[in-house]
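User: Can you predict the 3D structure for this chain?
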Amino acid sequence: MLELSDETLWPNQPLGRSIAGTERSLNRTRQRELAGFHSRHYVSGSTVVVAAGDIRHADLLHLAKRLAKRTPKGQRSEWFPAVQQQTQPEICLYTREMEQTQLALGIRTCSRHDPRRFALRLLNAVLGENMSSRLFQSIREEHGLAYSIYSTPNFYHDTGSLTIAAGLDTSNTQKALALTMTELRRLREKAPTTSELRRARDYLIGQLELSLESTENQMNWVAEQLLGFDKIIPPDQIKDRLHEVRPSDLRRAAQDFFQPDRLCLSLVSPLKNSRHLRKWLEF
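Assistant: Here is the predicted structure, written as structure tokens:
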């Protein structure tokens, strides 16, 4: 369902395609194509060596130099910029005989380099990242429409997304979508309270600190920073940027991104058509 959401957000371009491929593409893949992919991408310019734990820097440097001698020379491959041609909300329905409807409301947002990403991370925490979020409280706790509903942000080189996902009884699809859109409109119209922002900030900082308790996660953090930013951003700097965000910044982010030409609704469902859902995708 989430792959269908990405395909709807970025149709007919690499970012929207499943990394696993399709049955047809897998059956047509040959050894020479795999070897060609390996020789183009597994090169020195795309390689980052990272270690964390009980290791001396000099030892790691020695190992990295040995690795470099065996790694083919080459630069990181060019990436294909994401293209946005959407002018109105899009709906993609995959009809399948099943007990529930799986729903994903994708919203195109900003890249990992955009300074608005800090406000968006906090906005997502307020909206649907945990059990105290607005979507969880409204759709699960108050109305009992879904066992699971959450939102998650993704940041790429030149674009990003915020995806709201839920598993629903099919008869609840329309009401759940209407309530979800109500929460998006609320965030556009009025900034979250100071206490909401504080809870969201405390949650994100707590998650960051917990995630860096193990050496494996520390290693992954450094690798992701180097691959995504070509530098290491210290965790304390991330915390400082989160502390700089004000409630008005969250509202501004909602106004920037919660727009009709950024909305993509994807469903895997026994529904035969989705025309009746389009009217709810309005602000």
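The mean pLDDT is 95. DSSP finds eleven helices and five strands in the chain.
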